From TrEMBL:
GO terms for molecular function: flavin adenine dinucleotide binding; N,N-dimethylaniline monooxygenase activity; NADP binding. The keyword rRNA processing does not apply. The keyword S-adenosyl-L-methionine does not apply. It comes from Actinoplanes teichomyceticus. This is Cation diffusion facilitator CzcD-associated flavoprotein CzcO. InterPro entries: FAD-binding_MO, FAD/NAD-bd_sf, Flavin_mOase-like. Its cofactor is FAD.
Length: 496
């Protein structure tokens, strides 16, 4: 009995979150003759915005830049909550006819490349039934994000088993968790923590944010008054384009200012913090990070909600380290005890490159630290594979849109010239390399040795500059000396 035929796709997109939905729309629009499918391990689209359910979850970038270039953001909230973002993403799916292309409960566990056939073979598990199937694809576009969906990061806390209350990680928020009138302790100081504290403060008896290291925190308006006025005057589409351009420029200038004048930026942020906090508040203890602004992301608090919770006495920040959990809370290394009914470990993510997929090329396993990122979207020595990693210093989706455009241009170039294979190759073996992301956040640093590298020159740099990427990815040439193109039947490759 012959084996069943393996379905073949021109493009297999892995992940139906904000990156995968965007990639699918670009492929369908710019490469209408290509067959593609979006393979999503979960039961619904939306990625992060469907997974996280903790109180107050929202964006920390404005939706005029976090939204897609091809779909205006029409809501009055510029810093939007998760349900609004999820609705926007699912509108994008419906409006672009992508529903029929998304296959849910499909987890890709391995991908094997054959240079003989110029195809990837994907091992796909049906999450519900455990059934294993195979697909083949000319290209794989990995849009699974950068962290594990099934497990958040929680440090080992001494004495945790002694605590008699409830411990919860934001990534696994229980639907039935009732914190009304309870004392809540949130461990962490990043974007998740500063979102949770004011969101819970109105209902809880009191919320304490325990941080080992402060973060830079700045108030921003939840609604963009100028954007909303422009929408009324100019209409949705034109207003969106103009506001998007304004916000891209503003974000870039703020980042550049912080990089060039870190001491002045620190002083300005401190002055804003003082204006938002009660008189005599210990700003230098709780809002004075040991690193410079934008070495890690600045935490945005819409309408200053965190500061309001502190002023109203609903929330407290404590800067200290944990000695041990106790039956009623935690004891700090200073000797102070913090009592809690509920402890929230807002301690971050577990980075997982390429969705944890095992990659092999012609039978050889791909060891990611041995690869170098090409244009921030491909890997040296790995043919016909692209990935989506957004900006760390700006809205994630700004980079994704440019990557998707370039990806489509690359496939069109290959089709025009009759190529089946495209593989980046480092032309200078002596080129120095450094970590894939120049970013000091703990979740990146914990995984840095397991990620690809980047070089010291283009196109081997992982760019975080939108304006430069517009030139590189949108208007720059697709063919380059570092890209090797070939036909499936050829015995030798041809440099472009």
């Amino acid at each position: 009995m012959s084996a069943p035929a393996v379905e073949h796709l021109d493009v297999a997109i892995i992940g139906a979150g904000i990156s995968g939905i965007g990639a699918a729309r670009y492929v369908k629009t710019h490469l209408p003759a290509k067959t593609f499918a979006v393979l999503e391990a979960r039961a619904a689209s939306g990625g992060t915005w469907d997974l996280f359910r903790y109180p107050g979850i929202r964006s920390d970038s404005d939706l005029h830049t976090f939204g897609y270039e091809f779909k205006p953001w029409r809501d009055k909230q510029a810093i939007a909550d998760a349900p609004r973002i999820l609705n926007y993403l699912r509108e994008a799916v419906a409006e672009n006819g992508l529903d029929a292309h998304i296959r849910y409960h499909r987890k890709v566990t391995a991908a094997s490349w054959s240079s003989v056939t110029a195809r990837w073979t994907l091992d796909v598990e049906h999450v519900d039934t455990g059934e294993q199937v195979h697909l083949s694809a000319g290209w794989v576009f990995v849009a699974s994000g950068y962290y594990r969906y099934d497990e958040g990061f929680t440090p080992r806390f001494p004495g945790r088993e002694q605590f008699t209350g409830t411990v919860v990680h934001p990534q696994h928020w229980p639907d039935d968790l009732d914190y009304t009138g309870k004392k809540v302790l949130v461990i962490g100081s990043g974007a998740t923590a500063v979102t949770l504290v004011p969101a819970m403060a109105d209902t809880a008896a009191h919320v304490t944010m325990l941080q080992r290291t402060p973060s830079y925190i700045m108030p921003i308006p939840r609604e963009d008054a100028l954007a909303n006025a422009m929408r009324r005057i100019l209409g949705e589409d034109l207003a969106y384009r103009l506001v998007r351009r304004k916000n891209i420029t503003r974000g870039r200038l703020v980042w550049q200012f912080c990089q060039r004048y870190p001491k002045l930026a620190r002083r300005l942020i401190r002055r804003v913090n003082i204006s938002q906090l009660p008189a005599g508040y210990s700003v230098d203890e709780h809002f004075n990070p040991p690193y410079d602004p934008w070495d890690q992301r600045l935490c945005a608090v819409p309408d200053g909600d965190l500061f309001r919770a502190i002023r109203d006495g609903q929330a407290t920040i404590v800067t200290d380290t944990i000695d041990t959990f106790t039956a009623t809370g935690v004891r700090l290394n200073s000797g102070r005890e913090l009592h809690a009914d509920i402890i929230v470990t807002a301690t971050g993510l577990n980075v997982q490159a390429f969705g944890g997929i095992r990659l092999t090329v012609d039978g050889e396993p791909v060891h990611l630290p041995d690869t170098v990122a090409y244009k921030g979207m491909m890997l040296s020595g790995v043919p016909n594979l692209a990935y989506a990693i957004g900006y760390t210093n700006s809205s994630w989706t700004l980079k994704i849109g440019l990557l998707c455009e370039h990806f489509c241009r690359l496939l069109a170039h290959m089709q025009t010239h009759g190529y089946d294979i495209c593989r980046p190759e480092v032309t200078d073996p002596a080129m120095p390399t450094r970590p894939f992301l120049d970013f000091a956040a703990g979740y990146i640093q914990r995984a840095i040795d397991h990620l690809p590298r980047q070089g010291d020159r283009m196109p081997w740099l992982t760019s975080m500059d939108y304006r430069g990427d517009v030139t590189l990815l949108r208007t720059g040439a697709v063919a380059a000396p570092e890209l090797r193109f070939a036909r499936a039947v050829a015995t030798s490759e041809v440099a472009s």
